[in-house]
Amino acid sequence: MTRTGGVAPRLAEALAVVLGVEQIPLRLRAWDGSEAGPEGAPRIVVRSRRALRRLVWAPGELGLGRAYVAGDIDIEGDVFDTFAALSSAGRLSVPGGSPDAAPGERLRLLGTALRLGAVGPQPPPPPEEIDPGRHGRRHSRDRDATSVSHHYDVGNDFYALVLGPSMVYSCAVWDDEATGLDAAQQIKLDLVCRKLGLRPGMRLLDVGCGWGSLALHAAREYGVDVVGITLSVEQAALARKRAAEAGLADRVDIRVQDYRDVDDDPFDAISSVGMAEHVGRAQMPAYAARLHDLLRPGGRLLNHAISWRAGDTSWDRDTFIARYVFPDGELLRLGETVAALEAGGLEILDVDALRGHYALTLRAWVRRLEEHWHDAVAASSEGRARVWRLYMAGSALAFEAGAMGVNQVLAQRPGGAPPPLRRTAWV
User: Fold this and answer.
1) Burial group, residue 9, by CB count within 10 angstroms (0-12, 13-18, 19+)
2) Cα separation, 391 vs 147, whole angstroms
3) Which domains are delineated in the chain?
4) In the predicted model, is pLDDT for residue 358 greater than 90?
5) Fewer CB within 10 Å: C terminus or N terminus of the chain?
6) Rounded distance, CA 196 to CA 300, Å?
7) Share of the chain above pLDDT 90, in %
8) Which candidate, 373, 410, 369, 376, places its Cα nearest to that of 391?
9) Which residue, among 214, 281, 296, 274, has the nearest Cα to 395 in the 3D structure?
10) Which are the contacts of 126, defined by CB distance < 8 A and separation ≥ 6?
11) pTM of the full predicted structure?
């Protein structure tokens, strides 16, 4: 039986302060069984006073994220409906993260916490959190390796449950919504190979090769020799295993290596799919120049990367995504990426915008995570599964709203054979 009065109305006022709104866009149930908020709205459960204490210490997106990852706050019903309501409210609607509450609002929040007996030391963050201020120069080789390991070395079994048999962790390409995730990923892999103009006997460098899916497809279907590089030890181990099982170990060389350390050029083509987000704005000119130098004249580069389309183009260090998902990640505007590639000596041949495709991909990943929730928790941790659910659902909504895009930029090192006259050569 739902209680009227009780803790929930005060919690609703506190959450309204954090969100920067007059009334919360959610129905809230408190630890004492009381409820508040608009009837029929998406529902959340605040399970303990610790959730409120987290918001007192971090009154914004980070505090909410910590409370959800730790299980202090939970969601009832559809995750997309709940996050859509939250992301449309006040501060959370600000692209790139939400500013914390003002000093006066913090005092109101502290007063509510005092009345509800929630004042106390700052709760430790969930173990899935990483401190962006850790030692090491930003985007140095060692720090980049640590950041990549934080995101990708969370268990290959976990990723297999979310990604499915394709083991592709980047935007798929869908003919329509009925295509299905696995088929859409195969379409994407083949599209990349055709854009690069791969032919038997060529050498392909796959930068950020993940679990080797593109490398295997290119070797098997196009007869090329592939060098795949990643900074994730777990990714490399599985990619090598998959190559051996496919009888392609002599054609696919998987390395744990930084792109800055590749020295066995030239390559006929380079793919960089979902990797440039880890490079950083300051390093983009050197990244573009290095990939240019690794290509033979006339060789093509396909750079597939998420772009930021609204507001600031970098994540504040105290946002959820910076501490839990992509530490040191930076999203560039599409124009910045194109300018860096051109400044690096590459000619732009084509730009393909895939924003709607990524929203479909993310929704499919969330469905798979939820369908395999208990196995995913067993393969990693409940906190890790919650991180991925929050980040993927929130990202899907951001793509749908147009705050983020994803683009395949096809470029060529001058010299060699001229590019096709029409893009029909690969579409």
Assistant:
1) middle
2) 16
3) 8-115 (no CATH), 141-425 (3.40.50.150)
4) yes
5) N
6) 6
7) 71
8) 369
9) 274
10) 66, 69, 70, 383
11) 0.92
